[in-house]
């Protein structure tokens, strides 16, 4: 299983505070391998506080949702030739 690859940090307004997020690509060993993900790091009362704590983060003027994963399994996922029946994995809402 490889580790996630960090892409960048962002500062975004949401629900009256400024949130800091880490954007990354999911590492191998997951059905989400290679997909862009977003992880909450912290929140601050003002944009200035967030920028001071994370000076290299990109500042967004609005909340930016991460890409949504399709609720449908990839093509061939249920087949006997490399699908989850072979790997012991199951595709469910908890996977994204």
Describe the protein.
The chain has 96 residues and is mainly β. The chain has one domain (5-62, 74-91). It is built from two helices and four strands; from the N terminus they run βββαβα. The chain has a four-stranded mixed β-sheet. A hairpin with a 2-residue loop joins β1 and β2. The protein is elongated, with a radius of gyration of 17 Å. The mean pLDDT is 81.
- Counting structural domains, the number is 1
Shape: elongated
**What kind of sheet is the major sheet?**
4 strands, mixed
Distance between the termini: 18 Å
With strands numbered from the N-terminus, the spatial order across the biggest sheet is 3-2-1-4
Mean pLDDT: 81
The run of helices and strands is: EEEHEH
- The stretches of 5 or more residues where confidence is low (pLDDT under 50) are none
Structural class: mainly beta
Instruction: Please give the number of β-strands.
Output: 4
What percentage of the residues does DSSP assign to strands (E)?
A: 25-35%
Number of helices, counting only DSSP H or I runs of 4 residues or more: 2
* Helix content percent band: 10-25%
Backbone CA Rg: 17 Å
């Amino acid at each position: 299983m490889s580790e996630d690859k960090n892409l960048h940090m962002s500062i975004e307004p949401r629900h009256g505070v400024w949130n800091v997020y880490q954007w990354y690509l999911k590492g191998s060993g997951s059905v989400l391998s290679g997909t862009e993900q977003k992880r909450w790091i912290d929140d601050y009362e003002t944009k200035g506080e967030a920028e001071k704590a994370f000076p290299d983060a990109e500042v967004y003027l609005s909340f930016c949702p991460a890409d949504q994963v399709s609720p449908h399994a990839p093509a061939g996922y249920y087949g006997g030739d490399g699908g989850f029946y072979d790997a012991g994995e199951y595709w469910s809402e908890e996977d994204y």
